[in-house]
Write a structure and sequence with these properties.
With 140 residues, this protein is of the alpha+beta class. It is 17% helix and 41% strand. The chain has two helices and six strands. It starts with a helix and ends with a strand.
Length: 140
């Protein structure tokens, strides 16, 4: 597990762009499961959408990427490196994410070859899939 202070020490992201509150499970270089408490106070809800707040899909994908980065950056091999997006494939959004939801974010690292890798990413609210797809990343 990683609490918010450990996440802040691991990821380069800071408020308001840090989108992970806690890492629930982690297996370095293989898997991470994180949690994001979605609150009405999130800055993006001011404009997305007034009167009908929905968490933007791109931010769900970013939250997944941050959880995947934790799986790598907690390893001695990748500590201090920067993990960058290189691609998003077959991402599908299946459920709205609303204020009050708890987003569970799971990323399994499928492969790493050189400095490029791929992960399978799934975001859940309760037992429902909110989004799923594959993330390609580059280690800098």
């Amino acid at each position: 597990m990683m609490d918010i202070m450990q996440i802040l020490q691991t990821l380069p992201h800071k408020y308001p762009f840090l989108l992970v509150d806690k890492i629930l499970e982690i297996e370095p270089e293989k898997y991470a499961k994180g949690l994001k408490n979605v609150t009405f106070n999130e800055p993006f809800f001011q404009g997305h959408f007034p009167g009908n707040p929905i968490m933007p899909g791109v931010l769900i994908v970013e939250a997944l990427a941050q959880v995947g980065a934790c799986a790598l950056l907690c390893s001695e091999k990748y500590r201090g490196k920067l993990i960058l997006f290189a691609g998003i494939d077959r991402m599908r959004f299946k459920r709205r994410v609303l204020p009050g939801d708890t987003l569970i974010l799971e990323v399994s690292i499928i492969k790493i070859k050189g400095n490029i890798g791929k992960g399978k990413a799934v975001a859940y609210v309760a037992d429902e899939i909110a989004a799923e797809g594959e993330l390609t990343f580059a280690v800098s």
